[in-house]
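Q: Sequence in, structure out?
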Amino acid sequence: MDKPADALQRLRRVHEDAAVAVLRSAGALSRAELTQRTGLSRTTLFSIISELIERDAVVEVEALPAEPRGRGRPAALIALNPSAGLLIGLDVGRRRVRLAIANVAHEIIATGMADIPAGADAPAQAEAAVRLVRRVGEEHGIRLGALEAIGLGLVGIVDDPSLPAGAVPARHAPVARRLAEEFGVRVAVDNNARLAALAESTWGAARSVGDLVYVRWSVGVGGGFVVGGRLLRGAHGAAGEIGHVSLDPEGPPCHCGGRGCLERRIGSQALLEVCAARGIALTGLDALVAAAQDRVPGVCEVISAAAADLGRILADTVVQLDPARVVVGGEFASLGSLVLDPIRQAIDGLALPKIGRRIGVTPADLGVNASAMGAIAFLLNEEPAIPGHLRP
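A: Exactly. Output:
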C-alpha cells in the first residue's frame, strides 16, 4: 500500500503535468487563466507555479496590455522557459522541404527551405530534410542537443487503419525513421495540408474561431478541417482531401485512383497546360502566379475559372461542416480578389443562401511556412493516441 506522502507526491506531479500541458498548448497565460483552464484551486496552482519557477521550468513574462492601463506594473504571465527545449516542424512537399524551429514558449526562432529534386524518392527526401535542419541550426547557432521532438508534415494520407496503433505507413517510414535516427528524438507525422490548417487555427487567420475549413491550393490541392477547436483526421486519415473530390466521373484518371478530381483540373500543372493551349508558355507554378500578379489577361481568366471550380467544392463542404471561416492558403492565395472573389461568390450563392449566415473567406496568414509551423502546433497539442509516431 502506498504511503500517504507518496500518494500526495504523485498527485502533485499530476497537477504539475496539467499546468505544463496547458502552457504548451496555449502559450503564456496569467495565473488566473491557468487556474480556470486546469481546474485547480488558486492555492494549489500558485504553489505549483512557484515550484516550477524555482526549477526554471517556467518563467514570468510581462504582459503586453491590449489597451492602455492605469498606473502600476502590467500583469505578469506564466510561460514555459524558452531555453528548456526545442521543437522542429518539417514540411516535406513535392518540390521543397520547409523548416521551422520553435522553443517551448511558442516562439519561432528560425525557418528555412531547400529544394527537392524532381522525382526524388523517400530516402532522398529524408536526406534533404536532415541537411536542412543541420544547415539552419549552424546558421543560427542553435544547439540541437536541446531538441525534444520533430513534427513532420507529408503529402497524402498518413494514417493507415491496417497498421498497428502508432505505426507509420511504409511509404512515409524512410523519412520519419531517418529523422528519428539522426536526431535521437521521437517523430510525429501527419498530412501537411492538415497541419497548415492547425497552424492557421493556432496562430493565423482562424485563431479566433473554433470551426474552420482550410484549403491549400498549390501544385496540388489539399485541405484540413478544424471542428470544435480540434483537427479532424477521419477514420482513415483522409479528412480534408478536398483535391480528390470528383468533378467528373468520366474525367481523366487521378493518381488517387479516382477520375476527374478537382486537383486534376485546378492543380498548377493542369493550369499550365490550359495556358499553353492558349499560347501562353509558362515554366512552372511560380511563373504562373507571377503572370497572374502582372494581370496577364489569359492567365487571369484561367485562374479565375479554376477558383470558381474550387468555390463550388468548398460550398458543398460549407453546407456539411458549417464553419465560421474558410481560409485559403498556398501560392494561389497570394492573388487576392482574383481567387477569393469567385470562391466567396460560390459559397454565398450555393451554401444554403437563404439562412442568412455569412461565412468569412480569407487568405491564410502564415504563408509558405504554415505546414512546418503546424507540425510544431501538432507537437504542442498532441495526445498520446495520435497516428504516425516513430521513436528512435
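The two ends are 36 Å apart (CA to CA).
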